[in-house]
C-alpha cells in the first residue's frame, strides 16, 4: 500500500531577513539584524532575551505596529510589511491581537464592556457579542466580575480582562509582550497557564516575549534573541 504524501502546512508567521535600525552615526542602534524564523499554526513560541535585545521590536514588526528597514513578515499568508495603513488596520482588527505589560483597559468601561470593544468595532450583532463576551469572561475566570471597572480589579484580573479582549475577535495570531511583567510571581504563573490553555482551546497561534522561565517551559518552542539576532 502506498502511503499518502504529507502536505506541508503553511506557517502562520514567516519572518525573513528582518532588519531594523534606529538612529544614525555613533548613536545607531541595530535592533534587529537579518532575523528569520517561522511559527506553525497553533504553536506557542516564547521570545527570550535581555532588555534591549530586540524582543519588543521583533513583536512590533510581526504584529504590524512598526515597519522594518528590510525583510518581510507574512502572517497567515498576508505580507504584513507590504500593507498600507488601511491594510494594517484591517489586519489588527481581524487577524492579530495584542497583550502588553500595561493592561490598556478603558477605565470608564466595565470588564465586560472592555472585552466587547473589538466586537463593537466589527459591528457584531448585540446578541452574538454578549454571548462571546460571556464565554470569554468564563474562560478567564472573571464572569462574576463582568460589571466591575478596571480600577476595582487586581492587576492579575485586569490582565485576564486584557487577554479576553484580545481574543474577542477570534484572532489567528496573538502577540504578547511581557504579559506578566507587572504581576507578582503567583499571579504571573496563573496568567501564563491561562495563556497556554487559551492557545489550545481557541486554536490561536501565539508569539510571547518573556523573561520568565515558567513561560519558556509552557511554550512549544523558545527563540533566544541577543543583539538583534536570533541565536541557535
Q: How many whole angstroms does the radius of gyration measure?
A: 18 Å
Main structural class:
alpha/beta
Mean pLDDT: 89
The biggest beta sheet, please? 6 strands, mixed
Fraction in helix? 25-40%
Distance between the termini: 40 Å
Write the element-wise H/E pattern from the N-terminal end onward.
EEEHEEHEHHHEHEHEE
For the biggest β-sheet, the strand order reads: 6-7-8-3-9-10
Fraction in beta strands: 25-35%
Bulk shape: globular
Number of strands: 10
Low-confidence stretches: none
GO molecular function: ATP binding
InterPro entries: AAA+_ATPase, ABC_transporter-like_ATP-bd, ABC_transporter-like_CS, ABC_transpr_LolD-like, MacB-like_ATP-bd, P-loop_NTPase
Organism: Angustibacter luteus
Keywords: ATP-binding, Nucleotide-binding, Transport
What does it look like?
The model has no long low-confidence stretch (mean pLDDT 89). Helix 3 packs across helix 4, helix 4 packs across helix 5 (155-167) and helix 5 (155-167) runs parallel beside helix 6 (185-202). It is built from seven helices and ten strands. The chain has helices at residues 55-62, 85-94, 111-121, 126-139, 155-167, 185-202, 213-218; strands at residues 13-22, 29-39, 44-48, 70-75, 78-79, 96-99, 173-177, 205-210, 221-226, 229-231. 34% of the residues lie in helices and 25% in strands. The protein is an alpha/beta fold. It is globular, with a radius of gyration of 18 Å.
Amino acid at each position: 500500500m502506498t502511503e499518502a504524501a504529507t502536505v506541508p502546512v503553511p506557517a502562520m508567521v514567516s519572518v525573513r531577513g528582518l532588519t531594523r535600525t534606529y538612529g544614525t552615526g555613533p548613536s545607531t542602534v541595530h535592533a534587529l539584524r537579518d532575523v528569520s524564523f517561522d511559527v506553525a499554526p497553533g504553536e506557542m513560541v516564547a521570545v527570550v532575551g535581555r532588555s534591549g535585545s530586540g524582543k519588543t521590536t521583533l513583536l512590533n514588526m510581526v504584529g504590524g505596529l512598526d515597519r522594518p528597514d528590510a525583510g518581510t513578515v507574512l502572517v497567515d499568508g498576508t505580507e504584513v510589511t507590504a500593507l498600507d495603513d488601511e491594510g494594517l488596520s484591517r489586519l489588527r482588527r481581524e487577524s492579530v491581537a495584542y497583550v502588553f505589560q500595561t493592561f490598556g483597559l478603558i477605565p470608564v468601561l466595565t470588564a465586560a464592556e472592555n472585552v466587547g470593544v473589538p466586537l463593537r468595532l466589527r459591528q457584531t450583532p448585540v446578541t452574538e457579542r454578549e454571548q462571546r463576551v460571556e464565554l470569554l469572561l468564563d474562560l478567564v475566570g472573571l464572569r462574576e466580575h463582568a460589571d466591575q471597572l478596571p480600577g476595582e480589579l487586581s492587576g492579575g484580573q485586569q490582565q485576564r480582562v486584557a487577554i479576553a479582549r484580545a481574543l474577542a475577535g477570534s484572532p489567528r495570531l496573538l502577540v504578547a509582550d511581557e504579559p506578566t511583567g507587572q504581576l507578582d510571581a503567583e499571579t504571573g504563573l496563573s496568567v501564563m497557564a491561562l495563556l497556554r490553555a487559551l492557545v489550545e482551546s481557541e486554536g490561536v497561534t501565539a508569539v510571547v516575549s518573556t523573561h520568565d522561565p515558567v513561560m519558556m517551559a509552557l511554550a512549544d518552542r523558545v527563540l533566544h534573541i541577543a543583539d538583534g539576532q536570533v541565536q541557535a
